[in-house]
Design brief:
Mean pLDDT: 95
Largest sheet: 9 strands, mixed
Strand content: 15-25%
Shape: globular
Helix content: 25-40%
Oligomer: single chain
Structural class: alpha/beta
Distance between the termini: 59 Å
Radius of gyration: 25 Å
Bound molecules: glutamine
Low-confidence stretches: none
Number of helices: 18
Strand order of the largest sheet: 13-12-14-15-23-22-21-18-19
Number of strands: 23
C-alpha cells in the first residue's frame, strides 16, 4: 500500500482561471519526478453527471474507458498524464446526495438525522480517499469545481478542512486566484486575492500555496504583499501568466518550483530528479511547425470552443506529430447550404464532421460531407459525423430518397442509421447510452490498416444509434465499406470510401484517447492526408 498524499486545488475571485490546467501541470511535474499521480474533479452541481448537459453549459462531455460521462477537465488530466481516468475521478454533488439518500433508504443510518455535516461531508471524504484505495498512487490531486464562497461548494471546502486536520502534512491546499491588471491605474491588483483567501480562512482552510493567474508578471513587492496578507512564504506565491499554449504551463510552474514547494510542505525534501524531456521535445516541435494546414471542423456548437475541446487538442497533438500547425476553422453546420458550401469550405485541406445529437444543423453536415466526398478532400467523421456520411452516401450515391437516421426522422423510408437493439427499451436519458470502451476488429487491406498497427482495437463510445446492417451489402457494392466491426455484437464501427484518397467515418470517439505522448493515430493520419492533399493543389 502506498503512503498516499492529497493535494487540493481550490479557486477564488472568478471561475475559468484554469484550475484544471494547474492541477494537470502539477501532476505532470510530480510524475516527471517518478511519482504516480491521479487527479480528481469534484463538481458542485446537482446533475449526477454532465452527460445530460447541453455542451453550451460546461463544454464537451468527456468519456472515460469505463464509460463515465465526465467533466472536460478529465480530458486535460489524461492528455497531460497519459494515464486513463475513471468514474471515480469525477464526482458531482448529485452523485454524493444520490448515494447518501440511497444509504438512508437502505437503513444504513437508522436512528440518525441525516445532515450535510457529517453525512454529506463523510461521503465527499470517502470519494476522495477511494482513489487511493487501490494503493497505486503517491499523490491524489483533487480539484474542487466552482469558486470559494459559493453556497454549493461549502460542503467540499468543509471536507477539505476536515481531511487537512486528519491527514496532517499528507494534505496540502493550493488556492488559485485572479490578479487583475487595471489599465487605468497601470497596476496589478492583489486585493481580490486577499479577499478570496480571507473567505477560505473563514471556512477554516489556510492555503499552502497561492497561484495567481495574471496577464503580466507580478513584481517581487506584490508577491511579498500577497505572502504577508495570506500567511504564506513568498516562494509559495506562484504566478501563472497567460501563455500561448496550455502545454507550456508545466514548464512555467517548474520554473517557479511549484512541485518542490508542494513536496517540501508535505515533508519530502529530497525528491528524485525531474525528467521532462518528452514534454520539452513535444513543446519545441509544437512551437516550430514547418507549415500550416487548414482543416474545417463542422459542428453546431462552434460558438463555444470548449464544446469540441478534445477534438481541438487532438489536432494539436497530431499537428505536432506531423510537424505542422493545424489551423482549425470552426464552421457552423446550421449555416452551411448547397449554395455556400464551396465558399465556407474553400481552402480547406481536410474536413471533420463533429459528433452531436438532434436535428439542428444536420443538413449542413450532410452538405459538407458531400463536398468532401465529391472534391476528394480528406474527411473524418466522428460518431454523428460518421452517421451523416452514411446518410449522405445513401441519398446521393445509392439514391435512397429520404434516407436518414431514425434519431432525426422516425418515419424515414430508409433508416440507414437506426436505434441499437439494446437501446430500444431504454427510456431514461442519464448515463444510458452505449458508453465507454468497446473492441473493434479492423478488416485488412484498407486504408484503415495504415492507421492502426493492430487488428483489434479498443475505442470509447457515446451513442444510441448505429449503422443499419440491412444496408451493408448495398453500401459495399457502391464503394462504402464497413472496415471495422465490433466482433461481439456485429456493429459497424468504421466506414471507408474506396474511390477517395482518405475518407473515414468512425462510430467511436478517437479524440478522447489522444494525449501528448500518444497522439491518436486517426488524427495523425488524417492530418497527414490533409498535408498530402495540400501538396497536390
Ligand atoms: N446522436 C448520435 C447517436 O446517439 C451520435 C452521438 C454522438 O455523436 N456522440 O447515435
Amino acid at each position: 500500500m502506498k503512503d498516499t498524499r492529497y493535494i487540493f486545488v481550490t479557486g477564488g475571485v472568478v471561475s475559468s482561471l484554469g484550475k484544471g490546467i494547474i492541477s494537470a501541470s502539477l501532476a505532470r511535474l510530480l510524475q516527471a519526478r517518478g511519482y504516480s499521480v491521479t487527479i480528481q474533479k469534484l463538481d458542485p452541481y446537482i446533475n449526477v453527471d454532465p452527460g445530460t448537459l447541453n455542451p453550451y453549459e460546461h463544454g464537451e462531455c468527456f468519456v472515460t474507458d469505463d464509460g463515465a460521462e465526465t467533466d472536460l477537465d478529465l480530458g486535460h488530466y489524461e492528455r497531460f498524464l497519459n494515464i486513463p481516468t475513471s468514474q471515480a475521478n469525477n464526482v458531482t454533488t448529485g452523485r454524493i446526495y444520490q448515494s447518501v439518500i440511497e444509504k438512508e433508504r437502505r437503513g444504513d443510518y437508522l436512528g440518525e438525522t441525516v445532515q450535510i455535516i457529517p453525512h454529506i461531508t463523510d461521503e465527499i471524504k470517502y470519494r476522495i480517499r477511494l482513489l487511493a484505495q487501490n494503493g497505486k498512487y503517491d499523490f491524489v490531486i483533487t480539484e474542487i469545481g466552482g469558486t470559494v464562497g459559493d453556497i454549493e461548494s461549502l460542503p467540499y471546502i468543509e471536507a477539505v478542512r476536515q481531511l487537512r486536520w486528519e491527514l496532517g502534512n499528507h494534505a496540502a491546499v493550493i488556492h488559485l486566484t485572479l490578479v487583475p491588471y487595471l489599465a487605468a491605474a497601470g497596476e496589478l491588483k492583489t486585493k481580490p486575492t486577499q479577499h478570496s483567501v480571507k473567505t477560505l480562512l473563514e471556512l477554516g482552510v489556510q492555503p499552502d500555496v497561492i497561484v495567481c493567474r495574471c496577464e503580466r508578471n507580478i513584481s517581487e513587492a506584490q508577491r511579498n504583499k500577497i505572502a504577508l496578507f495570506c500567511n504564506v512564504a513568498s516562494d509559495s506565491v506562484v504566478e501563472s501568466v497567460d501563455v500561448e499554449t496550455i502545454y507550456e504551463v508545466p514548464l512555467r510552474m517548474r520554473d517557479q518550483k511549484l512541485d518542490l514547494v508542494i513536496l517540501r510542505k508535505m515533508g519530502i525534501t529530497d525528491p528524485r530528479e525531474s525528467d521532462l524531456q518528452v514534454w520539452e521535445d513535444f513543446l519545441s516541435r509544437l512551437k516550430n511547425p514547418t507549415s500550416t494546414i487548414h482543416i474545417a471542423l463542422v459542428g453546431k456548437y462552434v460558438e463555444l470552443k470548449d464544446a469540441y475541446k478534445s477534438i481541438l487538442e487532438s489536432f494539436i497533438h497530431a499537428g505536432t506529430a506531423n510537424q505542422v500547425k493545424v489551423k482549425v476553422k470552426l464552421v457552423h453546420s446550421e449555416f452551411v447550404t448547397e449554395e455556400n458550401v464551396a465558399e465556407q469550405l474553400s481552402g480547406m485541406s481536410g474536413i471533420l464532421v463533429a459528433p452531436g445529437f438532434g436535428e439542428r444543423g444536420i443538413e449542413g453536415k450532410i452538405t459538407s460531407v458531400r463536398y468532401a466526398r465529391e472534391n476528394n478532400i480528406p474527411f473524418l467523421g466522428i460518431c454523428l459525423g460518421m452517421q451523416v456520411a452514411v446518410i449522405e452516401f445513401a441519398r446521393n450515391v445509392l439514391h435512397l430518397e429520404g434516407a436518414h437516421s431514425r434519431e432525426m426522422d422516425r418515419r424515414t423510408p430508409h433508416p440507414v442509421i437506426d436505434i441499437m437493439e439494446s437501446q430500444k427499451k431504454v427510456s431514461g436519458k442519464g448515463g444510458t447510452m452505449r458508453l465507454g470502451l468497446y473492441p473493434c476488429k479492423i478488416k485488412p487491406g484498407y486504408k484503415i490498416s495504415e492507421v492502426y498497427s493492430t487488428e483489434l482495437i479498443n475505442e470509447r463510445h457515446r451513442h444510441r444509434y448505429e449503422f443499419n446492417n440491412k444496408y451493408l451489402e448495398m453500401f459495399a457494392m457502391a464503394g462504402m465499406q464497413a472496415v471495422g466491426i465490433n466482433p461481439n455484437e456485429d456493429l459497424v464501427e468504421i466506414v471507408e470510401l474506396s474511390n477517395h484518397p482518405w475518407f473515414i467515418g468512425v462510430q467511436f470517439h478517437p479524440e478522447y484517447r489522444s494525449t501528448v505522448e500518444n497522439p491518436h493515430p486517426l488524427f495523425v493520419r488524417f492530418v497527414k492526408a490533409a498535408i498530402e492533399f495540400a501538396q497536390t493543389k
